[in-house]
Design brief:
The complex is a heterodimer of chains A (about 475) and B (about 375).
Chain A (H helix, E strand, L loop, with lengths): L2 E4 L9 E7 L6 E2 L4 E6 L4 E5 L4 E6 L5 E5 L3 E6 L11 H7 L43 E5 H15 L3 E5 L15 H5 L4 E3 L4 H13 L3 E5 L10 H9 L1 H4 L9 E5 L15 H5 L5 E3 L4 H13 L4 E5 L7 E5 L12 E4 L4 E5 L2 H14 L5 E5 L2 E3 L3 H11 L2 E4 L8 H13 L8 E3 L10 H7 L3 H11 L4
Parallel strand pairs in A: 10-11, 10-12, 12-13, 13-15, 14-15, 18-19, 18-21, 21-22
Antiparallel strand pairs in A: 1-8, 2-4, 2-7, 3-6, 4-5, 6-8, 9-16, 14-20, 17-19
Helix pairs in contact in A: 2-8, 4-5, 9-13, 10-11
Chain B lengths: L16 H8 L5 H8 L7 H26 L14 H8 L8 E4 L4 H6 L4 H8 L23 E4 L5 H16 L5 E6 L6 H12 L4 E7 L2 E2 L2 E2 H4 L16 E5 L3 H16 L5 E6 L17 H11 L1 H11 L4 H24 L18
Parallel strand pairs in B: 1-2, 1-3, 3-4, 4-8, 7-8
Antiparallel strand pairs in B: 5-6
The chains are: A alpha/beta (about 475), B alpha/beta (about 375).
Chain lengths: ~475, ~375
Amino acid sequence: MAVELKMPALSPTMEEGTLAKWLKQEGDLVQPGDIIAEIETDKATMEFEAIDEGTLGKILVEEGTENVAVGTVIAMLVGEGEEADDVPTPAAAAQANSTSDPAPGEGKDVGRDEPGGISAPEKPQSQPKSDPTIPEGTSFTSTSVREALRDGMAEEMRRDDRVFVMGEEVAEYQGAYKVTQGLLDEFGPKRVIDTPITEYGFAGIGTGAAMGGLRPIVEFMTFNFAMQAIDHIINSAAKTNYMSGGQMRCPVVFRGPNGAASRVGAQHSQNYGPWYASVPGLVVIAPYDAADAKGLMKAAIRSEDPVVFLENELVYGRSFDVPDLDDHVLPIGKARIMREGSDVTIVSYSIGVGLSLEAADELAGQGIDAEVIDLRTLRPLDTQTILDSLAKTNRLVIAEEGWPVCSIASEVIAVCMEQGFDHLDAPVLRVCNEDVPLPYAANLEKLALIDTPRIVEAVKKVCYKD
Amino acid sequence: MAQSPKKPAKSKKASSAKSAQSDAEFVLHSLQDAHEKSPRYDASEEEMMQFYEQMLLIRRFEEKAGQLYGLGLIGGFCHLYIGQEAVAIGLQSALDNDRDSVITGYRDHGHMLAYGIDPNVIMAELTGRQAGISKGKGGSMHMFSTEHKFYGGHGIVGAQVSLGGGLALAHKYKDDGGLCLAYFGDGAANQGQVYETFNMASLWQLPIVFVIENNGYAMGTAVKRSSAETEFHRRGTAFRIPGMDVNGMDVLEVRNAAEIAFKHVRENGGPVLIECNTYRYRGHSMSDPAKYRSREEVQEKRDHHDPIEGLKKTLIDGGKSEADLKAIDKAIRARVAEAADFSESSPEPEPQELYTDVLVENY
């Protein structure tokens, strides 16, 4: 079968070029790999190699011709047993039958839409589910956040053999922050795996194990160290389902303490919430109290999607009431109104929720009734709960233990501007950490971090009470 | 002990009693010794014909992909496997497809074809169409087939090695008897996570075969310009992973190495590192003018080391006729033309696909 030789492109953007030189002439025998011609653009020269074996038939574009469009047939390659003259040139073939393709698979490209013919489709919206109601008469047990997280993991490990925990010091040491305490004893070393200090490697192994059908919980001793592994969290875990057209799931939970601890300096004190929450393909959870920590940990482990689960070291030891239920699972993507109020909304998450509740108490004494919302999930963000509250209070402050620039606070402000503008009686304010690496000195650290007085001050400002 | 010419025998240093004792159980060289004893797999004619056909399919498919790229039908990056065919075929033909898994980097078309995955859906992915194996949302570097236990198709150099470690962990955890074959290049071999994975794979005795496809160049950088140790099969030594040094231009030698390595892994011997010395004829990607090497160097490989021509010679020496092999080539050309035709005439993804598969669940 004769083969059409077409003007090749040097790059995806090249549209035309110069056929500088023919290195083979009509009638020459051509072997795969032989250079047939030289093509030039203003940027580069390319040697045009033969792919097929044959005899160079008719040359259709003379050497020295400029502005030859990519895809133009420049010559015919004649196969064994064919004569050059017997082979129809493309023009003749087109005349003979204008509707049929003389050489299938030669770049006729009929499956693509015409440029300009596509309009952007509407983005599907989903409604977050509400928390399940806790049955009347349910008892509660005061539990630390640390224990609640462990209980959530243990319950899911009992329920599903595929769930296992891996990370530094999770097994024999019982967890650097004792979150995995007791798991090795109950589940053994197969399911509670101590790793070497090698975050990039074990984050990849955890992600690969999820691709291979398991349900890994990958603990980072702190999320500061997960920066060594962020490539797997984003490029491997978050994007694979999309890139595979929905074929390959990655149900992994990356968890560990996040945000500032106490006097550990800049490299160990950072909130990664906004980093991960900016990535489509990830679920990002950052609970505050023990009941949410447990209920959302269980939901994270059951999720078919990769989850980044951000805990807080300073909150681990705080105790809260947790309902005594066999299976306390909370919906991902649903914010929680921690305190109802009518004058102003304070939006927060993680450790900031505690500060916001304190601020609300103090404000109540000053005659300001604040509503406090715990986002709980940072991605997908429950914008409806924020907007409903804003519609009620008309004033909003975001309290975030993290840097102010490109933060969750920035995102919530954008949501209020875009979708809640008509409800705003005052500009939305953010209360964040100072925009500096976290200092070590006790006095400077205190100055750098968000605190209750700053939230109170911002709330009074939006209420025009200062 | 047979030594290949490029590896001079090294004199063993006198070692202390302690290390001598631990070395007694250290099988670092035993797999290579077994391989060198009889380096070519004793294939039946039927097997050889199958290897020939599969390698030729990869060659013709990639040539066609190169053509379609040149015509603007394939966008972005497109890394061709031409010249390296014996590696994927030699190794994957030895797998147990019911339980073993494979993962590789972005030069992945050949590994998929080696599985017998329909060339139509691979080519349609390259052209970004709905019928593509990733619905047109992955492209050349991001293709997967969970049905075949082929886990990609990964665009970040070296990432597939630790992901492969995870697949191996899953095999061991589920106790399904499978192993993971994790391919990477001489360029990826310098990434830190490769050694993090070597360490854990050996520590935990994971069922994994690491395969370095050493094609001589990491994009435009020759191995000797990037690597302090260019004998990549030695790179597992510090982790007590046995290495094998294999001629990756001969499918029967690769298959032989695969038999030895897979047996070792299946007998709970832990990971193996195979270096397949191979060569890519084309540039790193389609937009690479390949000015970092001479045309003579490429031509020498094509003329004297081509894996397809090499097997053809073995087949003809064994009594096959030129005409039989020509008929195969003709059928494959027709098959590839059909795939190209399919990939051009399939529609692009529906605009609504923009928003599907971001997350699996609704929240």
